Amino acid sequence: MDFKKIIIALVITMTLITSTLGLILLFSENKAIPSSDVDIKDDIAYVPNTRGLAIYKILPELNARKLTHLPFDETAFGVSIVKDLLYVSGGFGLKIFDLSDDPENPSLIGEYNKGGGNQIAINNSLAFLTFMNGGLEIIDVQDPMNPILVGQFNLGNRDLDVEVVGTTLYLADPDRGLEVINGTEPSNPQIINTLPIIGAWDIWRVDNLLYLGCHSNGVRIINITNPTIPNVISAYPSDGDVYALAGDHDILYVGNFYGRIEVLNVSNPAQPSRLKITPEDFSSHGLYYDGTYAYLVGHHTQFSILKYDSDTSELRFYSIISTKSASWDLFMVIPLILTVFALIRRKKTS
User: What distances in angstroms separate CA 261 from CA 54, 96, 244, 316, 323, one per listed residue?
Assistant: First the structure.
């Protein structure tokens, strides 16, 4: 029996097997992305994605470790934490989890089943759920184990994000702009104003300012001192399609899909200016800011922690959890090692 031929046949067989497994793993992992939003309580981050809800532990050295993943039948898009309750929205509607006993493995206590859900906002005992095919539903969650629909609003467009200030609702609609809704009577919400800003996509509020990400139209900074008559005070032409933003009165992190992360100086909201831009593309989908650190989720990155250092003018990344795991790299390296081994063996026996 020709030992050399047997070795070569085994190498070829193992190479085909590992390459096939690697491709299967790659495509199965890609289904777990993108991550679309993030909210944080204490040192736990909750990240909805196309397979459910990922939960990460933020370690003291600012590294992050994935704790668990709660699988859903539909894509999860939005997340909001109020006290010890975690609200997750998505194609399934709304799921409510209790964080009081075990925040690392929360218990599902209530559901509102309605297909096509997108983002969620909570105000007092009401949940405001937007829908991908347009519209908003107002849900009474005073009893989180029994959510009840109390009102709805629909213009037939795509309502992607929602912010609630008192009894005033702000809806980001990429086709119509920023819609202002009077929610004084939850059973009968009424539109009272519209800012026709094409591309309205993501909303981040800081006191009486709204930061509005407007896809290919950059960023708008809006004064809502008079909540029913919002006033655009400045516009910033971003590097790409703005999908996410978060910040405070001084600094604003802007995440661009098919683009880079920008850090803006917004201490003068009438004249925002760029402080930093990353050289690489992060394809951002969601951002959260806690006053010190920004937390990023997206298409290429499942979870990252970052901070702009004003002293050094550097944007530092403390943790990056990629959507491509080391297991994929291993399956790509094994065939290479086997091929090299076969070549060396062949040279020795020739």
Answer: 23, 32, 10, 12, 17
Q: Cα 13 to the chain's mean position, in Å?
A: 41
Q: Quick check: helix, strand or coil at residue 187?
A: coil
Q: 226-281 pLDDT, tens per residue?
A: 999 999 999 999 888 999 999 999 999 999 887 789 999 999 999 999 999 998 87
User: What's the pLDDT tens digit per position in 40-63?
Assistant: 999 999 999 988 999 999 998 888
- Contact predicate 146/133, CB 8 Å: no
**Rounded to the nearest 10 degrees, how much is the dihedral formed by the CA atoms of 99, 130, 91, 115?**
120
pTM of the model: 0.83
Task: For residue 270, tell me if it sits in a domain.
Answer: no
Question: Is 113 found in the same domain as 26?
Answer: no
What's the CATH number where 129 sits?
2.130.10.10
Host domain of residue 20: 1-32+323-350
